[in-house]
Amino acid sequence: MTIVKYSLDQFTADMESLIKGNPDQQKIFDSGSSLLERLVSDENVLPTEYRLPAANGSRPNHGTYLLYQGESGLSVTAVVWGPGEHLGPHDHITWGMIGILNNTLTETRYQRVDDRSKDGFATLELDRETNFKPGEITLLVPDTDEIHQMDNHTDRPTVEIHVYGDDLRGIDRHRYDLESGKVIGFRSGRYDNC
Ligand SMILES: [Fe+2]
Questions:
Q1: Which of 20, 58, 105, 168 is the most buried (most CB within 10 A)?
Q2: How far away, in angstroms, is 4 Cα from ligand 1 center?
Q3: CA atoms within a 13 Å half-sphere pointing along the CA-CB vector of 71
Q4: Protein residues within 5 Å, CB atom, of ion ligand 1
Q5: Is residue 41 part of a domain?
């Protein structure tokens, strides 16, 4: 018997078809997360070169690889968190779905609780910490539940597939400094901050 695996091309075609119907965000998450679960059920869906940290540049212990960019805005990237890697709280300003391909990753979610009256400052409250395992999905809901911190507490790389409703390059996003309360605006020139 031949087992037909679910490929990246099939996933992006199914996602484009889903988006084409202009579904509401909940429908995208319901149907899209089922598709992403299928995709990340097999670690080998990505070639080896997309499952390793970059090993050079400004973040040698990190890897981001663009897998797909559609005219609809849909973008899919492979993201590799190297051993011990940490990325502080940040937002995304578009919907997102993250599927864990191997190993484990700790995601810490925060809620912004200030009244936004003080420019350049924010108060974040710890919401929850989750250790994600292969095949699991975590959702980013704009304005509601999308500020997270990522930590790889293990001694080997963790690989994820990130799916966003828009091209992160060019979106005005924010990093949050937990100690000072400062909000730092940024734009990703590349897929170097997911
Ligand atoms: Fe992120």
A1: 105
A2: 32
A3: 1
A4: 194
A5: yes
